[in-house]
## 1
Amino acid sequence: MRLDKFLTVTATATRSEAARAVRADAVLVNGVPAKSASVHIDPERDTVEFCGKPVVYRAHHYIILNKPEGYVSATEDGKDPTVLELLPPKYTALGLFPCGRLDKNTKGLMLLTDDGDLAHRLLSPRRHVAKRYYFRVKFPLTEAECARFRDGLVLEDGYETKPADIELSPDMTSGVITLIEGKYHQIKRMMLALHNQITHLERISFGPLTLPSDLTRGAWRELTSEEEALLLAAAK
């Protein structure tokens, strides 16, 4: 693998940043300054330092993002900003994509990755990976309506949803919903089937991942090694 590509796929630097660092003797390969950004290295055997810091090779990247309103869950869009635009260029060059979708006006936890196999397994209906959402609705819900929600509802197009858990707050207009599937606008359509309307929706967990309390809206970070291990285990 070329050195500049290695620095790119590890989200260390863009190709232009890598070239500048090499010219400044700031990139070491096995302890020796690299002569060119195009030199070939073995990611599994060679050691690389960039500006004094060791670079660890990773086959895939996993980013947790606190999605704000107004951003679409796509890699590109001709009209609205995408969630990838919240990341710096050295990450957007990795080929990341959203693992699952949140509506434009839905906030909260989003997983971005370049691991297509993991994304496919996490989103497969057969695996029943749970997703939890905090919600508010326009009108108070009754216990009878919550029971219908838990049994599964027939939507306006005739689709019958799988049972979904709902924990209702004392005010009867908010709570937490847990889904094991993810149809288009599913929660909004389920509430419409109950003649109600979602006014706020925020995903707070996805499988073993929980939205960190210190991750502000629009902020992101790479998964910790513990979070990554839990995520990979959930997809097995």
## 2
Amino acid sequence: MSSAIKFGTDGWRSIIADDFTFGNVSLVTEAICEYLIDESLDRKGIFIGYDNRFLSEEFAGLSARVLSETGIKVFLAKESVPTPVSAFMVKKMGLDGALMFTASHNPPKYNGIKFIPDYGGPAGQDVTEKIEKKLALLLSGKRFEHGRRQAKVDLVSDFVSYIDRLMDIVDKSLIKKASPKVGLDTMFGAGSKIMPHILVHRLGLDATVLNDWRDPLFGGRLPDPSKENLEKLLEIIDKQNLDLGMALDGDADRFGVIDGKGVFINPNNVISLILNYLTETGRYSPQDIIVRTLATTHLIDEICKEHNLGIEETPVGFKHIGKAMAKGNVLIGGEESGGLSIKGHIPEKDGLLANLMLLEIQSYLKLKNKGPYLSDYLNEIYDRYGTFYNLRMDLEVEEDKKNRILGFFAGLGAKEVEGNKVKETIEIDGVKLLFEKHKGWLLARPSGTEPLIRCYIETTDKPFFDSLKKFVEKNIKNLLK
């Protein structure tokens, strides 16, 4: 089974006791050790964090022993922490990197390892390929001997500096003044302690908190803050007349939000909301750019045009956004799957920061307009730039049929689809078609972590949106026969 170990779009994930075993975790950690030594990144130390999944702390402890026995100093979290905390500690402590044990929003039977390099963001393909080469040597029987003295493992329990950073980014005085009524679902994940602490002790809010204890089965649902998994949060928003409901995924790097009207705001619209708010309140400079993935809404582009902000489009995966953010000058980096960070923070997605920014916007709206909610603010943005209808379809596809589907979409270049001509084809990650009318586009790409083809569509015209959705569903169904 060890030969199946591959780093996907965000680390290595696999099923516990199948591929994700103590033996394989030891091998992967050793491969990371050899990469660090080769790159002379073995002198400042490595932080190790872990989430609330089954055996996460034991896997982290094993990894700490392997690293220390190779002579690399280890700073091991004393308790579960969010992925963005692990990334932040790399930068704060000036370390060579971090390991984070998590499978993010995957089902409970999964666990995984994320390697975070010294810049505090997801490892790029250039890094993971080097680690995989070291792993291949280990699997072939190669053993590395260094004769180095065993290094120390320090336990770390103080993460106040991370909270301080978040408080520096958001307008805490505005939030305190508005004192919005909020609900929070931490989904039994790694944000279960730190996010409630921020809301209650740093912001002085009377927050209703759900699922803030460890349950490795995540209450029998995916630790994914999607609309269908937030029914209980929606219920308390209605019963308690709350202004805002927020949620975090299993390792707290992704966010979910429901406003006081009970409207779920999808990640595409959250990114647009925050971008519009930052520009409206003058919190940007003319040199700033916005970085988004191919699959993320073009409403962002319209806001950027209005404010003469540059925009960069990357392949799917926050590692590409993080690489751009590490260079500086990026006001917002965002992806439609729920990843976001902003200037002045780490080049890693942070669900806590996203939620706090939404909390600030809700506070701003409450004080300025005496009551409008996030969906009202979104409608104001739509009135200005147009309504952007978007959808992601996850379609189960056997591996040997993925290329057939991608080839079909690539063959649509310069043709008409449902009466709208294709004006451009982009193939940096799957196949993206840009249409001449209605600011429409379609993206088909294979998932990097699951046996799926993901299809994304967006347009400002509802009839074209509906017909494009039917077109995609019909043709993929035919191609799978």
## 3
Amino acid sequence: MDWLYILMPIAGVKIFWPGLIILGIGVGIIGGFFGMGGAWMVTPGLNILGFPMAFAIGTDIAHMAGKSLISTMRHGKFGNVDYKLGMIMLIGTVVGFEVGAQMIMWLERLGAVEKTVRFLYLILLAFIAWMVFHDVAKRRQKQQEALKAGREVDKLATGIEWHKTFHKIKIPPMIHLKVAGIYCSAWLPIIVSFLTGWLAGILGIGGGLIRMPALIYIIGCPTHVAVGTDLFEVMISGLYGAATYTYKGRTELVAAIIMLVGASIGAQIGTVATKYIKGYGIRIAFGIAVIGCAVSIVLKMVPMYYPAYRTFFDGASTVVVLGIVAALSFYITVKMVEGAKQEVAAKKASMAKQTGSQV
């Protein structure tokens, strides 16, 4: 079975190359759908496949930059990108990213990068999963209360409304974001982007895992605009991140290219799927993906305390992370096909109706 493994010349490790293809295509679909580079799955996924953590971070960022460019172009055509908001957030993202990347180099010198990054991932994933499902639960509660009162349910209502509190902060300069439909202090997106950029630099992600929820819950973007705008940010921060990690010698370009080939196909599918799956459908699927990723990291950490079971838990961790990628990719693709069929059928019915009325 040696033919299933390929030597990575820079990292100096042999990697299961079919796993790289699965990650590339799957995360391309998921990233285009959720509005993020998908690094929250790829970095632990590459580490699970055998890359040292610093190389997993650098390689994923390089692959992510190219894929996000493709997804951003597609979302731009759908009007889902608030370019003004994205450019404002770019200031904090780049500064925060470099601070995080320098911290990774420091942790690597201390020999503490693997354990520290995994624990940070778990804390972050647990918080985001709670936030998403808490939001969904509160939204359902609002719907039930509206129905009992005999009121019409507000389709734009959300469960968590932290953004309303932050919008009350009127520190100049104030900005109006037309695409997102937001009027707020410019310092809000700048501070949010710095914090998400800092975490992105530490965890080796484009920031989408953190920024997409931040855009929704803190800044107040509609879900589909948060998806497109976040991808624009992921593209810019990813290009910068790829440059800085390559300069530091922590990017495995062979693996990045293999993954990018699959991701460029998958990103097209995921982006088109957002046309048919809106709002809370995206949020629920996102929450499930976060939980699956957290489980895979826990399994990978078990051998640190029980080394005798390393082979079993390493294998189980690989199965979980690749399984969640494959399952979500399949779900998104099916929903996209179903939505496209319904759209075509509706167009045909409309055309038939117009033809009948003309006759």
